[in-house]
Amino acid sequence: MTTISEYERLLRGAALRVTRPRVAVLRAVHAHPHADTDSIIGAVRHDLPKVSHQAVYDSLHALTAAGLVRRIQPSGHVARYESRVGDNHHHVVCRSCGAIADADCAVGEAPCLTASDDSGYAIDEAEVIYWGLCPTCSAT
After folding, report:
1. How far is Cα 34 from Cα 91, in angstroms, rounded to an integer?
2. How many CB atoms lie within 10 A of CB 30?
3. Among 112, 89, 110, which residue's Cα sits nearest to residue 101?
4. How confident is the model at residue 93, as a pLDDT?
5. How many CA atoms lie within 13 A of 124 on its CB side?
6. Which of 64, 29, 63, 23 is nearest to 43 (CA)?
7. Is the C-alpha dihedral spanning 2, 24, 33, 108 positive or negative?
8. H/E element, 81
């Protein structure tokens, strides 16, 4: 996505009011996959220099609740945000530098949604995090 009108369309489609902070936050999340809140605030401030931390936090919360943004938080790390929503992908995290990359489900129709015992739950999402070393850290 590259135009502000596309972000405005997404907000309206999710029944959210279009505000400059929401558009800027959505744009920042699309431009910086797996960014933490501080990085998103920095990116948003390029467009809106006087935006408050609270406005960014509120926007992230609203966008996440509306399903336009996904919040992930690998163990021992701060929350990160991404725009890839609506599928059942997972993540791989570098133990050394903390880099995060997307990892699609291994095979078939979301096989990781089949729990050995679902305890009666209607499972609709699974969260798997793979840990290891990224190519840069592996080389050193």
Report:
1. 10
2. 18
3. 89
4. 95
5. 2
6. 29
7. negative
8. strand 80-82
Residue 65 has pLDDT above 70, yes or no: yes
Which secondary structure element, helix H or strand E, spans residue 4, and what is its range? Answer: helix 4-13
101 φ/ψ angles, rounded to the nearest 5 degrees: -135, 155
Query: For residue 9, what are the CA distances in angstroms to 3, 82, 96?
Result: 10, 18, 39
Return the CA Rg of the chain: 17
Lowest mean pLDDT among 15-19, 43-47, 48-52, 127-131: 127-131
- 69: closest CA among 77, 78, 79? 79
Identity of the amino acid at 118: D
Contact 39, 33 (CB under 8 A): no
> What's the pLDDT score for residue 22?
97
Q: What is the pLDDT of residues 110-120, one digit of tens each?
A: 556 677 788 88
Beta bridge partners of 31: none
d(CA 121, CA 56): 34
For residue 121, the one-letter residue type is Y
pLDDT interval class at 109 (50, 70, 90): low
